[in-house]
Amino acid sequence: IRRGYNCEDHFYEYDTIRHSWEVLAVLLKSSICEDILIDVGMPVMHKNVTYNCRVAFLNRRILLIRPKMQMCDNSIYREGRWFSPWRKIRTVEDYFLPRQIAQITGQTVVPIGDAVIATRDTCIGFEICEELWHPDSNHIPASLDGVEIISNASGSMFEIRKAYEVVDLVKTASAKAGGCYMYSDFFGCDGGRMFFMGFSSITVNGAMLARAKQFSLREVEVTTATFDLEVIRSYRNGIRSRTHSSASSPAYPRVKIDFALTSDGEICDLMSSRIDTSHVTDEYSLTTSPEILYFRPEEEISMAPACWLWDYLRRSCQGGFFLPLSGGVDSSSVACIVYSMCRMIVEEVKTGDPQVLADVRKIVGDCDYVPTDPKQLCNTLLVTCYMGTENSSAQTKARASQLASQIGSYHLSIVIDTAITAVLGIFQQVAKMTPKFRVHGGSPRENLALQNVQARMRMVVAYLFAQLMLWVRGRPGGLLVLGSSNVDEALRGYFTKYDCSSADINPIGGISKEDLKRFLVWFGERHGLSAIKQILEATPTAELEPLKGGQLVQADEVDMGMTYKELAVYGRLRKLECSGPFSMFCQLVPRWSHCSPQEVADKVKHFWRCYAINRHKMTILTPACHLETYSPDDNRADHRQFLYNHTWKWQFDAIDEQVKKINEDDRGRGKREGPKIPTKPQSSYGAVSTPLKTNKLPRLDCD
């Protein structure tokens, strides 16, 4: 059992610690906790220092308070901001219990520190989350001292493709050290941007015996397994180098209890009392290792943000979602994720989950409602709206309408030119001037201002409709506005401040454009949505400039001066490989052999100029579900200043000097022969783009 992992700065408040003890008191007194050794997580203050702790108790007695020894401060975690690591290895101290707990347990003092619990038949140790990832993991010395069962209560956030890493770590831990590794992960939305993956499992000697669902709408899921402790002892004794190390390993303090985990009855008694028989295949009732199945990234995208949206919706007490649906890849992806959420809800209700059914009834305001069809549920929970202008095309309107029809959303098609004209009229009345688009002879700033007023008006209209559409439909409450900007556009700054990217929450703000396209291909084929094929084949465009003969003159990649594939490369190099302008140039010269060094330099400079000019936009971006390591989210994933010198003079001078040296070397050799130091190609950086024909850079959108 885990505490609320995202309390964040509330951990500074002693109220959080006090209320945690109050919850523990309820658990200690509960009859359902009798004869079960229970391990719960909570903050504990000891000698005026707050620790992230596991509290183990049995039959109304606290056995051990085990503080976390390694803090997680990488990626989007900030554990060291609120907690201190326990540095006293294999040492325990006395902890004086609060009076309300002492009255229940009859104890005044309990041990706190790095210790293990010894039962009559085995020994149980602990790791907490980051300690499994740490190079000096606790399970190794603990196993050498005879600990046979490791309990790890984790708060590991979900990221696309991360499941492989977690399974490998758990299997390797139990295979290398021998023993049973019980890995329990928090799952769902805990009130913030993270979605926890819920990949709980039980592994013995490298074989995973049981595993919880990775994606579920259930609040509680129990994972059980039955195994023979003698298998662990035989496995360890067979590794002779391990036994030699174990013979001289230092001992952990042991908390001894008169309790046994093994059965003292006959085999027939064990068979009659077993709980989970899903993997039982022989007369000894031992759990066998099932096949480990992984979801492909497209499936993960369809389910992880869907679960996150469901948790947010039911806890926000709103009546559904409002989505501006443009008929493009991004907003269509969000619509499909909401439809995926509806499918998951219907499936959970069919399995008889009472909590999901109760939540749905509360959201729709009908105590007798039973969802049986995903499309019908989507019509109830999702309002989509195509907000057209005189610059919109009939094709995008048709694509939005077709997709809405296929997923079942309550769809509107409106025209917002009246509102735009009214706003421009205010300016014209004051300035006595009329701004024009560039196709009509207007300057770049006139053109940009006219685009931005359209984009921002869509946000105003979206919130108006979100507040009143349930009133129109005869239901109480309002709707959450969904955003649909992706990682690449955020990194490049290719969006307008306070346009439709500004919303209540954004399920795709942590996903790249290329991943979204692959997701839509899979989702359309999986669920028979023919509209998606047309959406993917269309040229990405904001449709904020006038059409020419009914045809588009504005394309996203032309406007940006770079392709989405290139943006994905820049994003990974900048975040994952910590590359600045010069390092990025050095990385890309050998990888982009289809471009000359000068062309690579121009591309890199253009990206960093755009990044610097538009970095301020990240400070107001809608909260998005964290799904990828390369996220540029300003909140926790990517802490950087938002005021830059966009000329990057020192860095760009270094790039120019390097280009000069490469060209001189090439002339000396007669031709370019590639990098002097071979670089292993990486498929994730295989961007294909047309080299810039000129050093003249496209316009930079500053607003």
From TrEMBL:
Comp. bias regions, Basic and acidic residues: 662-675
Which terms are listed as keywords in the entry? ATP-binding, Ligase, NAD, Nucleotide-binding
Q: Which CDD domains match?
A: GAT_Gln-NAD-synth, NAD_synthase
Q: In which pathway does it act?
A: Cofactor biosynthesis; NAD(+) biosynthesis; NAD(+) from deamido-NAD(+) (L-Gln route): step 1/1
- The segments labelled Disordered in the record are 662-703
Residue ranges of domain CN hydrolase in the record: 1-229
EC main group? ligase
| Ranges annotated as biased composition (Polar residues) | 680-693
- Catalytic activities: deamido-NAD(+) + L-glutamine + ATP + H2O = L-glutamate + AMP + diphosphate + NAD(+) + H(+)
Q: Gene Ontology terms, cellular component aspect?
A: cytoplasm
Gene Ontology terms for molecular function: ATP binding; glutaminase activity; NAD+ synthase (glutamine-hydrolyzing) activity
Q: Name one GO biological process term.
A: NAD+ biosynthetic process
A Pfam family annotated for this chain is NAD_synthase
Q: Which family does it belong to?
A: In the C-terminal section; belongs to the NAD synthetase family.
Xref: NCBIfam families: nadE (TIGR00552)
The protein's name: Glutamine-dependent NAD(+) synthetase
Lineage from the top down? Eukaryota, Metazoa, Ecdysozoa, Arthropoda, Hexapoda
